[in-house]
Write a structure and sequence with these properties.
This protein has 184 residues and is an alpha/beta fold. The protein is built from 4 helices and 5 strands, in the order βαββββααα. The protein starts with 26 loop residues before the first strand and ends with a helix.
């Protein structure tokens, strides 16, 4: 068994608080980077000093020992969404969306889906801005997850022997969505 890492910086979160699986102990040093320049500066300085670095995004699919991390954790907290539409760009119909690494992915996907639904559905239903943000975005995202689960259960129905199988499939779908939302 390894020795525990030094106590975390006062007021800094432990890795347990930032990972989906709620695993991990303290870090020797914790830095929250809110700009790209700060992120590059902190990682470069730690690299030059030969100190281990863990760049932490949303924390999904990350497993850290309860002893902690004997280096610098750089929590990426950059925010922002930018779009660029160029008529002469053949990719994506000329539209490009850039999302900062620290932007909450669930919120971005829900908002993008709501804008799509409003763009299409708004032609027929007249969905307003408040309804789009409060109702259409979460309903669209959760309905998509539910539809995928129902499709998986329907396609694999011959393999389902009991309720436990359904629970396992539902859990696997949830893990898959967490991976897609936090990694891609």
């Amino acid at each position: 068994m390894t020795e525990p890492v030094a106590e975390p910086v006062t007021g800094a979160p432990t890795l347990r608080e930032r990972t989906t699986l709620r695993l991990g102990g303290p870090a020797r040093r914790w830095v929250t980077a809110t700009t790209e320049a700060e992120l590059v500066e902190v990682v470069s300085a730690a690299d030059e000093a030969g100190e281990p670095v863990l760049v932490l995004g949303g924390g999904s699919n990350l497993v850290v020992a309860d002893e902690g991390f004997a280096g610098t954790v750089v929590e990426v907290a950059t925010r922002g969404v930018a779009s660029d539409v160029e008529d002469d760009d053949p990719t994506c119909g000329g539209a490009m969306v850039t999302v900062a690494a620290g932007e909450p992915w669930d919120g971005f996907v829900a908002t993008a889906a709501a804008l799509l639904v409003q763009g299409i559905g708004g032609l027929f239903l007249g969905v307003g801005e408040i309804a789009s943000l409060a109702v259409v975005a979460p309903v669209t995202e959760e309905a998509g997850k539910g539809a995928f689960l129902v499709l998986m259960l329907w396609l694999r129905r011959a393999e389902l022997d009991g309720i436990l199988d359904g629970i396992v499939y539902a859990g696997m779908v949830g893990i898959g969505f967490a991976f897609v939302e936090n990694i891609l």
